[in-house]
């Protein structure tokens, strides 16, 4: 990682952070004209989401409240958006509709950069300036992250650093490299240079110590690819250990979320249940992911209480919120809002891909569910164990698949950028 980082010249100095009083002036920085965005859900037309902006009043006309606003205001759940691409101003209508943060990953950037011409001009400039493909990739990503952070900084300020974050992930090639991940996280934090950036670190066994060290260095972290309760507890401990090791008297600006993946759990366990094939097994399809997530929330309540936590809270520490990730429904037999509706509760985040986000706006139910029927979730969890399903093994398999998927996206994009760079160099000869 050190060699790769050294090849990347420091990006242009970050613009002075916006400090507007509201989202209206943040919108003004990017969008001087009205925007109208229409969405469709499951073939049904949706009323347009409208975000008005004007030179005088910024994001002027009030936007109609949506179910996303209700999620936050009535239930304390922060709805985030699991996507990022250019133009970043496309986020403005979503912010107006209640989105309070953004997550990204190597697959998201692979799709964004490879399918859009919006990156071409900057990429040509970087290649002409002597950058290699990987260095150019990071410059493209950093610009998107900085621009998105600028849009969400008003929320960050208004919530005193509790919300309004944009997440960027370290190289997936470092998923099994403890120290390389630490150095990459420090570097990304430095070059993005925004108070509301989350550095994403995978919850692999090798990177759990990285999380502790990065937190101890005062850097806020989004821990990603958590698939089991055992690994989730290790992640919480790494956060607490990091806060304690930081030596900071004020811990209020070092925050974290723990991204607990949901739908992929059902995808894998459903296949296992279908292979077992008994009526008892088949009756448990579509229940595993939510059951495990609800038990993770019970662990959260336990770990963030008591003398140890109270000592940290006195120094301003914030709880490491549970973030429900992988919340798009992959099985068409299940309700398309299943992984949002079922996990609503205070001090949580749900980062939604397009389909889940717009489905919830259209017909989601805003009701506290994350701690409802916990005994039923315990029963599902135990019943699956009795059928021979090993939760730890499920977690390990999904983690390997997740890391591998991100690596493939990252490597594929670098190959295509290399080819594009070579063709630009050839054309300029």
In short:
The chain has helices at residues 2-7, 23-28, 67-75, 91-96, 106-115, 120-128, 133-158, 178-192, 208-216, 229-245, 263-276, 279-282, 288-303, 307-313, 338-341, 354-363, 374-386, 391-428, and strands at residues 35-37, 40-41, 44-45, 49-51, 77-82, 102-103, 166-169, 197-202, 221-226, 256-261, 321-325, 348-352.
Summary keywords:
429 residues; alpha/beta; TIM Barrel; two-stranded antiparallel ribbon; 12 strands; globular; disordered N terminus; schiff base; Transaldolase_2; TAL/FSA
Write up what this structure looks like.
Belongs to the transaldolase family. Type 2 subfamily. It comes from Miscanthus lutarioriparius. With 429 residues, this protein is an alpha/beta fold. It has one domain (67-427): Alpha-Beta Barrel (TIM Barrel). Helices cover 51% and strands 12% of the residues. It is built from 18 helices and 12 strands. The protein has helices at residues 2-7, 23-28, 67-75, 91-96, 106-115, 120-128, 133-158, 178-192, 208-216, 229-245, 263-276, 279-282, 288-303, 307-313, 338-341, 354-363, 374-386, 391-428; strands at 35-37, 40-41, 44-45, 49-51, 77-82, 102-103, 166-169, 197-202, 221-226, 256-261, 321-325, 348-352. It has an 8-stranded parallel β-sheet. Strand 8 (197-202), helix 9 (208-216) and strand 9 form a beta-alpha-beta unit. Helix 8 (178-192) crosses helix 9 and helix 10 (229-245) packs parallel to helix 13 (288-303). The longest helix has 38 residues, at 391-428. It is globular and about 65 Å long. The two termini are 32 Å apart. Mean pLDDT is 88; it is low at 1-61.
